[in-house]
Amino acid sequence: MPVADAGPALRHPLDPDPVRSTKSRAVFALGLVALLTGLFVGGLVPATIAMLLAREARREAYASGGYLTGAVWLRRGERLAWAGLVLALSTLVALSVVGVLHLAETPTGQDFAPGID
Questions:
Q1: Greater model confidence, 100 or 14
Q2: Alpha-carbon span 102 to 47, nearest angstrom
Q3: Other C-beta atoms within 10 Å of 26: how many?
Q4: Per-residue burial over 31-57, b = 16 or more CB atoms within 10 Å of its CB, e = otherwise
Q5: How many angstroms separate the CA atoms of 50 and 45, rounded?
Q6: pLDDT for 24-82, tens place per residue?
């Protein structure tokens, strides 16, 4: 005997309505700030905060059992935060290479004993 299609799942009247997580929007905003300020090394702070907040938001969304939405904004914010971190770290590496090259080119003075005349 074939099983009939039950249709969409019915909600219990006391179930809460799905609501968008405010933390997911905050993660997106912080990730965007991190991306925009990443080249100036100022993106490290908002990117770090975005990553910590994203971790919290994921835990809350998992614990809500599907009644807390906003996973797309959360994912986008995390990607932007990672991009901001990569830009900031790339800037730090480039600046340190330039600094080492500049240090290598500067004269250090006389490196041998003066001759007797």
A1: 100
A2: 30
A3: 18
A4: bbbbbebbeeeebbebbebbbebbeeb
A5: 9
A6: 999 999 999 999 999 888 889 999 999 999 999 999 988 888 888 889 999 999 999 99
Tokens 């912080």 belong to 30
Tokens of 112: 């041998």
What are the residues whose beta carbons fall under 8 Å from the beta carbon of 86, sequence distance 6 or more? 38
Instruction: Name every residue whose Cβ is closer than 8 Å to that of residue 28 and which is 6 or more positions away in sequence.
Output: 73, 74, 76, 77, 80
Phi, psi of 66 (to 5 degrees): 100, 0
In Å, how far are 97, 99, 105, 112 from 108, measured between CA atoms?
19, 16, 9, 11
Specify whether the CB–CB gap between 51 and 84 falls below 8 A. no
For 74, residues 6+ apart whose C-beta sits below 8 A from its C-beta are 21, 23, 24, 27, 28, 54, 57, 58, 61
Which pTM does this prediction carry? 0.75
